[in-house]
Every structure is written in C-alpha cells, then in structure tokens.
Amino acid sequence: MRILFLTPYVPSDRAGGEKFTKLLLEDLSKNNQIDLVYYKYSFDKEYVCPNENVRVLKVCKNSTMVKLWNCLKHPMLHPTFSIRFSYRLLCFLKKQWKQNDYDLLYLDHSQMLLYGKYFPKAKKILMSHDVMAERFGHKGGAIARFVRLSEGRLMHMPNLNIFTFSQKDVDIVNATYGLQAYFTNFYMDENIVNAVTRKVENRFVFFGKWKRPDNFDGLKWFFDNVYPCRPKEEGYAIIGIGLPDDFKAYVESLPNVEYLGFVDNPYEIIANSKAVVSPIFSGAGVKVKVVESLACGTPVIGNELAFEGISAEFSKFMLLAKSKDEYIEKMDSLVIESAERKEFKEMFLKNYRSRSIPVYLKELKN
Questions:
Q1: How many helices (H) and strands (E) does the chain have?
Q2: Which of 16, 62, 164, 364 could be bridged to 39 by S-S, CB 3.0 to 4.6 A?
Q3: Mean local confidence (pLDDT), 76-98
Q4: Cα(322)–Cα(281) distance, rounded to whole angstroms?
C-alpha cells in the first residue's frame, strides 16, 4: 500500500504517543510505502527515517502562535481538533494525493482528524490516542458537550476506520457515537523486551512526560503527601522531560531522589526497581508508561485512572492505591521475587502482542 501519514508531533522515543508512532512507521514500512507529514517545534530534533520506504513529505512549523491562529479560524470546533489544521497544508496534501495515488490516509491522533473531512472518498484510519469525549468528560458541563459535538461530527465522516488502545475506548466510541472502533496494542520496543531484572534495588520510579498536567499533578501530590512519610534510605528516580524548574530544584535538593530527565533506555532502571509509582488524577485512555512498566515485569502502584483500560488479568502487578495511606501500605508490603517478575513479564508480552495495525491494514486492503 501507499500511505499518506499525518502526525501532530515528531515520531521519537520522547513519550508514549510519539514512540508508538515511531515504531508503527518502522513496522508499516516493511511492506508499504509511506509519505510522512509531521509537526515540530523549533527545539525538536528532526525525524530520521528508518529506511527508504519512509519519505518525509513535509515538516510543519509548530508554535503556540500557530496553534492559536488555527483555533481562531475554526470557532465551531473544540481547539483539540483545529490547532494543527492549516488550509495551506490542506492544499498541499490534496495536490500530493492527486499526484501519488495513495491507498490510505492515516490520521495519527484526533488533532489531525479534521484533514480527513476533505478526503471523503479516501480510505482513512484515525489512531485515537485518547477518545476526547472521555478525556474531557470528567470536567462535565459545556466544555464536555462541545468536545463530544466536535468529535462526533468528525468521526462520522465516510470511509473512516477508528482505532483505540483499549477495549474500554472501543466501547466508549460505540456508546457515545454509535460507531465501530478497533482495539490495537502499543508496540514494545526491543529495549523493553530485553530489560532483565538482575537485582531489585530499594528504589521507586516515576516515569512520564512531566509537562502534561495529568502526569505532573500526580508526581507533585506524591511528594507533597506520601514522600514525607517514607524512610530516607529509600531511593527514588524521576525519568522524563518537562519538569518545572522550581520542582526540579526541589527534588534535586533531596538526598534520596534522582531526577534523570530523558533517558535513552529507561527500562533497565525500571526492571530493577521495586515498582513504578503512578498517581494520576486527570486524563483518559491507557497509560503507556504503565503498560511499558508492566512489560518490564515491574509492579505499578497507582489509582484507578492509572490502570484505566488495562485488562484485569494483569492485576497482580497492578497495585491499586486510592489514598496516601494506601500508597504507603502498598509500598511497605511490596515483595515480589525476581523469578515471579520474569514469569509475569513473559506472560504479559505474549498476551499483549496479539494485535497490531499492520494486520488490520491487510484486512482493509482485501
């Protein structure tokens, strides 16, 4: 197949969504030709194509001003669906579509969904990283209704196949919009597969993209409420970019906390830590960091939102905590031997790799 692939960020290892896109492009390019359009901020690194089957067709400038301007041009849609939409880019895409005879338009994330409206006859895939009706539904009121109206109008476009990361999101799409969706899994890169528990250190890990409020709010809550009650010989590692400067200075002043920032391969650290701690108080959908941690054979201590959309068959390593005292209790009572972690890791990977978008694409092609 020849695929026109639109994504709102640079495919990379920086965060869960970007990593899924990077690994999907590598997988799709084994048997398909892909023309890629992506957005980048001035500080982002350029995407490096994995092979000659992936061609960067256009790199689009991203900035706060660009996003604001795009939103103002589409007042009838929630900004989630308009911040990446440009009529200039649309004209470029339509020209490319006529010239290159594409078989499929791939819309990576709801931020790209509006482009699909202008290709009514094309076969299209939406990879809904989050179902926005669910993500904003917790807020309720006018904003939630505006999101549902916007998302519903766009999802009902012709020839659109919708994918999500959990059966729960599939059910939400069906219940909210009366549409069929498909469930696909995250990719597990080789660093996760190869991560081995050798010696479990007396260390807990926080793992995420910290400029996202749903990640940072939980981290701050832990250090405000739970950390003061913990023994000082217990270690902590914070992995991921975007920590606010004042909070970064605070945790770096603590003798038993390491702020590691971006780490090329964080999975050896995760595989050899007691647990990943993941309190999350907002957002929706499957949390990539939780899935990747479980795939390392590492328990995760978190609340209900942290485990949203992940099968209960993995619950032995999903330690539910709803309050400060419950986090303390789970951390104190955690004893899982290395052999048991290895067995869980093998079971998790076997079950979790059973679905992929390329398999679905073969079915769509037929």
A1: 15, 13
A2: 62
A3: 88
A4: 10
Residue 86 Cα distances to 37, 92, 297, angstroms:
13, 10, 43
Would you state the structure tokens that stand for residue 90, as one six-digit string?
């649309």
Give 137: exposed, middle or buried? Use CB within 10 Å, 0-12, 13-18, 19+.
Answer: middle
Residue type for 176, please? T
pLDDT digits (tens, 9 = 90+) for 283-315: 666 788 888 999 999 999 999 888 887 878 888
CA dist 53 and 37 (Å) reads 14
Chain CA centroid to CA 263, Å: 17
Of the pLDDT bands very low, low, confident and very high (cuts 50, 70, 90), residue 276 is: very high
Can you tell me the distance from the alpha carbon of 237 to that of 215, in angstroms, rounded to the nearest whole number? 15
What contacts 356, CB < 8 A, 6 or more positions away?
27, 184, 185, 187
Sign of CA dihedral 350, 353, 190, 341: negative
Alpha-helical runs (H) found in the chain: 16-28, 64-72, 87-100, 113-116, 132-137, 141-155, 167-177, 190-194, 213-225, 245-252, 267-271, 288-295, 324-333, 338-352, 357-365
CA dihedral 275, 276, 282, 284 (to 10 degrees): -100
